[in-house]
Amino acid sequence: MKKAKNVIFYALMFLLSFVMIFPFLWMISTSFKFDSQVFTTPIEWIPDPVNFSNYVKVWTEEPFLTFYKNTAFVAVFATVGQVIISAMAAYAFAKMKFTGRNIVFGLYLATMMVPWNTIMIPQYQIISKLHLTDTHLALILGQLASAFGIFLLRQFFMTVPDELVEAARIDGAGEGRTFAQIMLPQAKPALATLIIFTFIQVWNDYMAPLIYLNTKEKYTIQLGLKFFQSEHTMQYTVIMAGTVCALIPILIIFLVFEKQITNGMVHSGLKG
User: Fold this and answer.
1) For the segment 89-136, what is each residue's pLDDT rounded down to a tens digit?
2) Does 220 share its domain with 106?
3) Pair (197, 243) in one structural domain
4) What whole-number distance in Å separates Cα of residue 73 and Cα of residue 67?
């Protein structure tokens, strides 16, 4: 009976996995096809012949390299800023005692329930008054504060024994030195998780660049991909090739840092 249940369970998991990965496999396969091969029945998973010209069009007909550079610039600086700010705030909520600490933290967590769509207009008004529209700085500033990042790191800092912090303070270390030399080295798994999540979020962000950027030379990869799609309407093979190019950095990051993501989620109390 138990063996039969296991067989059913693994068969169901395999089916669900295939359903999830099917669009991804179709995208990669289509990116190497000619237009006449896209909607053939049954699906031709391995194109014959293989067409590499779709990728040539992606990199020659549109400034994809510029889109990559812009996205990398925004993603790196936004990630660094968010990690620094989140780590300092998380340390304060976890290890520093002050009146109303839990109330402030609860209110801050409550902002996670507010959809970004409800604040994008007042946020745009602030950015506009600062004369930062059509700049990458507008995208970076919008990513610096993260309730999720503070929650993630606070949960990890809470697991660090208070005795370590107290010992550092007795030895004369200030809050800054305690934070930098005691807490941050202990929080490497959680920091790695936040870095990866933030980078992926910024890299895949579409709405913010759509709202703030007007100049094509400043487009990020997602906005550039949308522009590329409008320029190649009905050319599904070329569009899929551009989409694959946009996903490559994310896939590399996930495959390289998969272990850090898992460890960070487990140690931060997010598992399950």
Assistant:
1) 998 898 888 888 888 888 888 888 888 888 888 889 999 999 999 999
2) yes
3) yes
4) 10
